[in-house]
Every structure is written in structure tokens, then in C-alpha cells.
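Figure 6 in text form: structure in, sequence out.
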């Protein structure tokens, strides 16, 4: 596999227009992990999935830690929570800019950051996209598959399923804040099943949803 870069945080030096938090606070939670990864985990924004203090996606909040806990159990993540070692996985957000506590990004703010997200996703060119939560799943299905019009955005049903994308295999993850008994095991088992097969040949697999 061609080495894209060995940098762990913000490997492509993105400079998005982030200026909503006070100047003395972190302005963005940049992508983090293995830029040569086959698995790309996509979250919403730091207020939901964490990282405002650590600068690492999927830290600090219960929802973020739930995702990383599954990644640890399947061998993608090791080391300390605030500065983990990530292998064969890349972590990023649709909206990487931070906001004052309690604030949510506006639709226009997501739109402004979409070109940065898209450019990085295509540079990583992972085989498996793992959107976390409804917004990320909606965005990924709309932008990177032809299945959005055929799929009801029911995260309880979509959780841990496989959906064929345009050059990607999409496996939605229900936000851990909404997990019910068995949801953690479903996504863990799905990841192990994908790892156990020749997933690099799965870009054209048939969807199991829709």
C-alpha cells in the first residue's frame, strides 16, 4: 500500500475557517490516526463526540469513548485515551471547528467545512467508511453512495449493516448515546467479520440494506 503520510494529527495541514471559540481555546479538533488506513470513522462535531480539550476526536464524551472502546476491542486503538495509538483507522469529524459549550453548528457552517472534509476523505481513500450517528450517516450515504433515496435513516436498523458506496463500503454506527443492549456487540462483531475477510476486495459488494 502506498504511504500517504506518517503524520498522526491533521496530516494534510487543513486550515478551515474556525474562529467561533475564544482565542485562548482550541479552535478545531483535527482528524487523527493512520492516514494510510482502510477504515475511516466519521463523527459529527467536537461538542458531540469530544476532543475540545485533548484535540483528539472521539475522546472526553461518553459517545466518543463508546466508539473508541469498540475500536480498542477490535485492535485499532491502543495506548492512553488522550493520545492513543491508532492503526489502520482514521478518525475525523464533519464539522471539526469547536464552538462555545452548548452551541451547535449551523447548517451553513457544515456546508462551509464540507470541502475540507471531502478532500481529506478522498485523500485517505479508505475502503470502509464508518459514520457515527444520524447526521454523519446521512451525509455519507448522500455523498458517497447511490443508496440514500432507498434507505430509511433509521439508525437502530442501519447500525452495523453494510451498504455499498461509490468506491466504499459504508457501515453506519448508531450514536453510542443511544445504544441499546447488544448494539456494542453488533458493531464489534461486524468489524471483526470485515477484518476476517479480504475486505480490500469489497468495494463492489452488494448492499444488505435497502
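Output sequence:
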Amino acid at each position: 500500500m502506498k504511504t500517504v503520510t506518517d503524520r498522526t494529527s491533521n496530516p494534510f495541514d487543513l486550515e478551515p475557517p474556525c474562529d467561533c471559540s475564544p482565542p485562548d481555546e482550541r479552535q478545531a479538533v483535527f482528524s487523527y490516526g493512520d492516514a494510510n488506513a482502510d477504515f475511516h470513522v466519521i463523527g459529527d462535531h467536537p461538542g458531540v463526540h469530544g476532543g475540545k480539550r485533548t484535540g483528539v476526536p472521539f475522546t472526553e464524551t461518553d459517545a466518543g469513548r463508546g466508539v473508541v472502546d469498540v475500536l480498542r476491542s477490535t485492535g485499532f486503538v491502543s495506548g492512553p485515551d488522550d493520545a492513543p495509538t491508532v492503526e489502520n483507522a482514521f478518525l475525523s469529524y464533519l464539522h471539526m471547528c469547536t464552538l462555545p459549550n452548548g452551541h451547535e453548528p449551523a447548517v451553513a457552517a457544515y456546508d462551509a467545512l464540507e470541502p475540507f472534509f471531502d478532500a481529506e476523505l478522498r485523500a485517505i481513500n479508505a475502503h470502509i467508511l464508518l459514520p457515527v450517528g444520524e447526521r454523519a450517516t446521512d451525509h455519507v450515504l448522500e455523498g458517497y453512495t447511490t443508496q440514500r433515496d432507498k434507505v430509511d435513516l433509521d439508525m437502530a436498523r442501519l447500525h452495523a449493516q453494510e451498504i455499498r458506496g461509490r468506491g466504499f463500503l459504508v457501515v453506519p454506527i448508531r450514536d453510542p448515546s443511544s445504544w441499546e443492549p447488544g448494539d456494542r456487540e453488533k458493531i464489534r462483531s461486524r468489524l471483526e467479520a470485515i477484518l476476517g475477510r479480504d475486505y480490500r476486495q469489497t468495494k463492489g459488494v452488494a448492499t444488505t440494506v435497502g
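Caption detail: The two ends are 32 Å apart (CA to CA).
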